[in-house]
Amino acid sequence: MQNELDTLEVIIPVQIYGINAIGYPTKEFFTEGRSLPWLQDDRDAQAWETWDIGYRDLVILDADNTPVHKFNLTEVNLTTADAYDSVLQSFLDLSGTD
C-alpha cells in the first residue's frame, strides 16, 4: 500500500510505520526484505497506550498526529479488495489529492 500511496499525487505525504510495543524488541523477521520503517515504542512516547493500540492495529493519524481511524488487521484482511480499498481511501481522505 505504501508503494501505491507513493505514486499518487497527494497534498499531505503519507508514510506507513510499524510500531513495536514496549518490552518487545524489534525482530529482524519484521523488517527483513521489507521497506516499511519499524519503530520501537518506549516509555517516553508510549504510542500504544496513548493511541489505545492493540495487536495488529493499523492507526491512521491526521496531519497533527491525532488518530482518526483504526483498523485491526486480523479483522480487516487487506488481501480482500474491499478491505484494501477502504483502508486506502481512509489514507486518501486525510491526505487530500491534487
Question: Care to describe what's here?
Answer:
With 98 residues, the protein is α+β, with helices and mostly antiparallel strands. It has one domain (2-95). 30% of the residues lie in helices and 17% in strands. The protein is built from four helices and four strands. It has helices at residues 2-7, 28-31, 47-50, 81-95, and strands spanning 18-20, 38-40, 57-61, 67-72. The chain has a two-stranded parallel ribbon with strand order 1-2. It has a two-stranded antiparallel sheet with strand order 3-4. The two termini are 19 Å apart. The relative contact order is 0.21. The model has no long low-confidence stretch (mean pLDDT 87).
Low-pLDDT stretches are: none
Overall pLDDT, averaged?
87
> How many domains?
1
Give the biggest sheet: 2 strands, parallel
The end-to-end span amounts to 19 Å
Strand order of the largest sheet: 1-2
Compose a concise summary of this entry:
This protein has 98 residues and is of the alpha+beta class. The protein contains 4 helices and 4 strands; from the N terminus they run αβαβαββα. Strands 1-2 form a two-stranded parallel sheet.
Detail the topology: elements first, then pairings:
Elements: H1 2-7, E1 18-20, H2 28-31, E2 38-40, H3 47-50, E3 57-61, E4 67-72, H4 81-95
Parallel strand pairs: 1-2
Antiparallel strand pairs: 3-4
